[in-house]
Amino acid sequence: MGVRKIQEARLAGSGMYTNSQMRNREVRKYCKLDEQTEKLLKLAVEKWDLSARAYFRLIKVARTIADLAGKEDIDPSNMAEALQYRQTN
Amino acid sequence: MLVKVRSVANVGLESVPIEVEVDVAEQGFPGFTIVGLASKAVEEARERVKTAIKNSGFDFPPKKITVNLAPADLPKVGVAYDLPIAIGILAASQQCPILNELDSIFYGELSLDGSLRATKGVLLVGLFARRSSIFVPVESANEAAVVDGIAVFPVRNLKQVVDHLTGAKKMEVLKHIEVEELVGEELVDFDLAEVAGQEMAKRALTIAAAGGHNLLMWGPPGTGKTMLARTLPGILPPLLPAEALEVTRVYSVSGMISAGETIIRRRPFRAPHHGVSAAGMIGGGSNPLPGEVSLAHLGVLFLDEMAEFPRTVLEALRQPMEDREVEIVRAAGHVRYPAGFSLVGAVNPCPCGYLGHPRRECKCTDKQIRKYRAKMSGPILDRIDLHKSTGGRNK
């Protein structure tokens, strides 16, 4: 699975190997969100009253989805897919 | 005469040097005492060592023998001190020289016939040894073969070590194996393509496997939740060399590496039954051993019928899910084990299983459903990144 290689290379030297292992600091560093994606995420957080933990976890999942698609940056469709898996009730 | 032999105690995943001091005194009433906070298993070493020495064709000196395991205030558990104690007695009674191997570490359980039995924790001993030699049971020796810069002597029996020390017949050093040679091979035996339908769930599973995220699958019985989860070992990537060492350390102290095996190459997939106790899940015992969360480190912890697990067991997962390690505190001390697993759960939507099923009717009352759902608390659900229904309705 090449997608693990992408993550490994990104996190090389940190003792971490996968997106799920990233701490908030790495999330901020490696998961830049464009304006539209950020807006989508903020909207969801507000609407569903999501926790800060959920916020960071969503970005990490979106990062993996973008990696699976071989994309450098997270785009709104990646975030939308990540949001669709979030439990909201 | 007094002789000192080096050995190692494993406390959790940490190794502590142990000096096995053996004194065979000419004066005094014949006897054999072990001091230094020895547990029952260590106390019993007296009988094993005595018989093994005799059965290997050596003399057990009929003198006053005192063994001290230093540092004396650290509790000693396990059977790995048999070999250093036996070597110490033989050296102190001038049946074999030890001078040339003062730096060597001796570690292993003796059988009554003088042969060595597989002993847990050999990889940790190897990692601790750094540049010196280790004498370990042949069946467990391969674990240490991956460690750089040490000489591993695989010991079949006590006589072999004595012959090596006297120079009568030198033992051969185990061939070093590079971790890189062992990992990286594809070990796929189950493929997502074999699962019919459930495209959406397969996608969620792929994301979870790719990024190591947590996944919960909801659905009526027979919609393939367990089947999907079982495909995970097949689609998970092989362990990286550094990861393989981390995983093998945990399995080595648990004594879960089969005889002759080197390192764990497959990503762990643990599927404990819902009858598991909190100690079994998190780790525990008076001398705490790793639990399921640590055995699943860098792999998957699969909880089938997640709502059937005792609530206390599920809640205990919260801390390791966040910190990726567990600290187990007991009166005797505390140990830390890694617990970086990704959680994959499968649950029915209600006790009868058919809530929201397109054709079958759900027989549960609202109260039953609420009680069932309440088993999995908000904090646990908040830590699960991917929620996926495998059919029926998910809320």
How would you characterize this protein structure?
The complex is a heterodimer of chains A (89) and B (395). By secondary structure, chain A is mainly alpha-helical. Chain A has one domain (2-84): Helicase, Ruva Protein, domain 3 (Orthogonal Bundle). Chain A is 63% helix and 0% strand. Chain A has 5 helices and no strands. In chain A, helix 3 packs parallel to helix 5 and helix 4 crosses helix 5. The longest helix of chain A has 17 residues, at 52-68. Chain A is globular, with a radius of gyration of 13 Å. The N and C termini of chain A lie far apart (33 Å). Chain B has 395 residues and is α/β, with parallel strands linked by helices. Chain B folds into 2 domains: 2-166, Ribosomal Protein S5, domain 2, CATH 3.30.230; 182-389, P-loop containing nucleotide triphosphate hydrolases (Rossmann fold, 3-Layer(aba) Sandwich). Chain B is 31% helix and 22% strand. Chain B is built from 17 helices and 18 strands. Chain B has helices spanning 40-43, 45-55, 82-92, 122-129, 138-141, 158-166, 179-182, 199-211, 225-230, 232-235, 241-253, 278-282, 292-295, 311-315, 318-323, 366-374, 378-382; strands at 2-11, 14-25, 31-35, 64-70, 105-106, 109-110, 116-117, 133-137, 151-155, 215-218, 269-270, 283-284, 289-290, 300-304, 325-330, 333-338, 342-347, 386-389. In chain B, the strands form 6 sheets. In chain B, strands 11-14-17-10-18 form a 5-stranded parallel sheet. A 4-stranded mixed sheet of chain B has the order 1-2-4-3. Chain B has a 3-stranded parallel sheet with strand order 5-8-9, sandwiched between helices. In chain B, a hairpin with a 4-residue loop joins strand 12 and strand 13. Chain B is elongated, with a radius of gyration of 26 Å. Chain B starts with a strand and ends in a 6-residue tail after the last strand.
